[in-house]
UniProtKB/TrEMBL annotation:
Keywords from the UniProt entry: Membrane, Transmembrane, Transmembrane helix
Name the UniProt record assigns to this protein: Peptidoglycan hydrolase-like protein with peptidoglycan-binding domain
Record-annotated membrane-spanning stretches: 651-671
Organism: Lactobacillus colini
InterPro entries per record: GH, Peptidoglycan-bd-like, PGBD-like_sf, PGBDSf, Rv2525c-like_Glyco_Hydro-like
Domain Rv2525c-like glycoside hydrolase-like: 299-468
């Protein structure tokens, strides 16, 4: 908490709290939008603007412009106190918090002007007030801001702030920065009515710039190369060999032939917009239309050889609704044409509520089954769509789990995970392990494309839409990472639902157990010292405090489990390997072909110890489980007084050993349907070993 910020908040509420429309600031000493809104509303009240509003719009600007000339050293009034309050909230000290325009305030104004890259004259202006009464930062944001971007933002402010307003100078390349860079280009090349939009007039006026040139146009090219990750030289406006090499690298990475150092429309627009030169050639397209032989002939005549098609679903509503799914008959036509095709999956994905891990897993299985039926070969990438402009702060909790679900689902199939979406979404996917990206660069106004570099794993880049022979298509650039499929070999991939998977596992236990997918625990073995429970869920279980131990082709990675138990609990006895062997017998008996196991140990009721063994099942008897499913054994040990007399570490170690023995008993009992071994004898053996 900043005490000076709290002073500002308290004063705002005391001064304007009874004014109609004023929203009180939180008195927590932290600057946030609610405090900024209160400052703006206080300013509007002093300027006579009504009704009060949270924004800093035209009415506020107009009212301010009529008095800004009088807000000079010597002036005294609440407007100046609001200005000083805004400085405290901005993190710039005006030293005091009173209503006098004094030297302290002039110094604070100069500090902000220096940070913003504009002339530091110590005078207030409408644009400076708009930047001050805002959450925009004018210093480098730790961990996010980049010094070179901040230098560019300050340069743009120094040239164009009178027309564009004062940009943030936080080192983060964002929409405002991108717009200002295009605006700067328009001013340099003489586009009338410069507005920051790369439209037809700007396209027509974009020059071709060669090595040896100099001036502001070269500086803009340098900035564009820098924010795209291809230049780290100085922003001196000189087209030297370093700039030339950077342009060649950019052309090659984006597959923009010819691979020369010439900065033409294709390069310059490609640096400043996500869709680039929409008149450039490419070999790929995608379409939601089930294509005919004539369509394929038309596509080839236009020079296309690779096509993206949807695995499932339909488009349109009502009378205009039509199927978009790729069919076997269509594949035969594609094979005959000599074109290749890559698969896209999109049956939803237009809004944020769609995305979670469970949906990702479900979509992954559906797509893999359909791709197998159509005959796509092993190693084919399936591109899963995130078809809207999701904001950066929302990706981690929605789209990332969705992509993790896809990756998990495809792990035991023939196919590789790919992602379709904005540059930002694709960059997140690249980090998570999506093999290839299909970038939705055609939507150049989306926030997820502005200010984000192209992912290194891009395979396809969608940049313009139109029709060929009446069939709507999206033209797509291809990097060569994914050449599509020309030859198909249909095969069947069997599936099983979570509920049927549970039935098969229960059947294998040879016990009359009544259990569902609710996660509710059912006791399957109980003695005075040990209780064993079983539960199942249509969600994946967490990893507990252990790593993930895999079940692959029915075989449990027993070595890893044994080594982990030894390392974590320093246990050296035969019960470990015996317990793991029993786990292996269980997975075989239950028909779990592929899955993973995790283990956690917890203390309950302050005395009892519980060992939880969770198994996420992906394949049951080589059938893909159609959605998330897990089964969990819970073994609770109720220690005797003997255990309580031991040091806590020894008690945990010995209790774990006893619980492992209980696991052996439980699994033997369940698998064989018999009565199991004598728990007392096993407990005595393991205790003597551990002590």
């Amino acid at each position: 908490m900043d005490e000076r910020v709290k002073d500002v908040q308290v004063w705002l509420n005391k001064t304007y709290g009874n004014v109609s429309g004023f929203k009180k600031a939180p008195e927590d000493g932290r600057t946030g939008w609610d405090t900024i809104y209160s400052l703006r509303e206080g300013l509007q009240y002093e300027l006579g603007v009504s009704p009060l509003a949270e924004g800093f719009g035209d009415m506020t600007r107009s009212a301010l412009s009529s008095v800004i000339g009088s807000l000079t050293p010597g002036y005294s009034g609440n407007i100046i106190k609001l200005v000083k309050g805004a400085f405290w909230c901005k993190g710039i000290s005006p030293v005091d918090f009173n209503s006098k325009f004094n030297t302290n305030l002039s110094n604070a104004i100069e500090e902000l002007q220096n940070d913003a890259g504009i002339e530091a004259d110590g005078q207030l202006s409408v644009n400076l007030m708009a930047a001050l009464f805002d959450m925009s930062a004018f210093v480098l944001i730790p961990g996010r801001g980049v010094s070179g971007v901040r230098e560019m933002q300050q340069y743009l402010n120094s040239r164009y702030s009178d027309e564009l307003g004062i940009l943030p100078c936080d080192g983060i390349y964002q929409r405002a920065t991108n717009t200002a860079l295009i605006f700067a280009l328009q001013k340099v090349i003489g586009v009338a009515g410069a507005n920051g939009n790369y439209g037809p007039g700007t396209i027509a006026a974009t020059p071709t710039v060669q090595e040896g040139a100099s001036g502001d146009i070269v500086r803009i090219i340098q900035y564009g190369l820098y924010v795209n990750g291809f230049y780290d030289g100085s922003f001196d406006g000189k087209f030297d060999g370093t700039v030339a090499d950077s342009i060649i690298k950019f052309r090659k990475f984006m597959n923009l032939p010819p691979f020369t150092s010439t900065a033409d429309l294709t390069v310059i627009k490609g640096l400043l917009t996500s869709n680039g030169n929409t008149n450039r050639d490419s070999i790929a397209l995608d379409t939601s239309t089930q294509v005919s032989t004539q369509d394929l002939a038309n596509f080839k005549r236009y020079g296309f050889s690779v096509m993206g098609r949807y695995l499932t679903g339909s488009v349109g509503v009502g009378s205009s609704k039509r199927d978009k799914d790729l069919t076997a008959a269509e594949i035969k036509r594609i094979e005959d044409s000599g074109m290749s095709v890559f698969p896209i999956y999109e049956d939803g994905g237009y809004e944020i509520d769609y995305f979670n891990k469970k949906q990702g897993y479900k979509d992954g299985i559906i797509a893999a089954v359909k791709a197998s039926e159509l005959g796509f070969p092993k190693g084919t990438t399936i591109y899963f769509a995130v078809d809207f402009d999701i904001q950066d702060g929302d990706i981690e909790g929605t789209v990332e789990p969705y992509m993790n679900g896809i990756i998990t689902a495809l792990k035991y199939t023939d196919f590789e995970p790919g992602i379709y979406g904005t540059r930002n979404v694709c960059l997140h996917g690249e980090k998570l392990g999506m093999k290839n990206s299909f970038v939705a660069d055609m939507s150049y106004g989306w926030s997820g494309n502005l200010g984000f570099v192209m992912p290194k794993n891009w395979a396809f880049d969608q940049f313009v839409e139109y029709s060929i022979g009446g069939t709507p298509i999206d033209q797509v650039a291809a990097s060569g990472r994914d050449k599509g499929t020309k030859s198909f070999s249909p095969r069947k991939q069997e599936t099983i639902s979570p509920s049927d998977t549970l039935k098969e596992i229960i059947k294998s236990l040879k016990q009359d157990i009544q259990i569902d997918l609710s996660g509710e625990e059912v006791t399957i073995l109980e003695t005075p010292t040990v209780e064993v429970t079983l539960s199942a869920s249509d969600e994946f279980a967490g990893s507990g405090d252990s790593p993930i131990f895999t079940i692959n082709n029915g075989k449990l990675n027993s070595v890893d489990i044994t080594n982990w138990l030894k390392k974590k609990y320093n246990m050296e006895n035969n019960s470990l390997s015996v317990a793991v062997d029993e786990l292996q017998k269980f997975t075989v008996s239950a028909g779990i072909t592929n899955g993973d196991i995790s283990i956690s140990v917890s203390q309950t009721n302050g005395t009892d110890y519980k060992l939880s063994i969770s198994c996420n099942v992906y394949k049951e008897d080589n059938k893909l489980v159609t959605n998330t499913f897990s089964i969990e054994f819970g073994i609770t040990m109720k220690p005797t007084d003997f255990f309580h007399s031991l040091p806590n570490g020894d008690a945990i170690k010995i209790t774990l050993g006893v619980v492992l023995i209980a696991l052996i008993v439980a699994l033997v009992t369940l698998i064989t349907g018999g009565a199991g071994s004598s728990i007392a004898g096993e407990v005595a053996e393991v205790v003597s070993t551990l002590i």
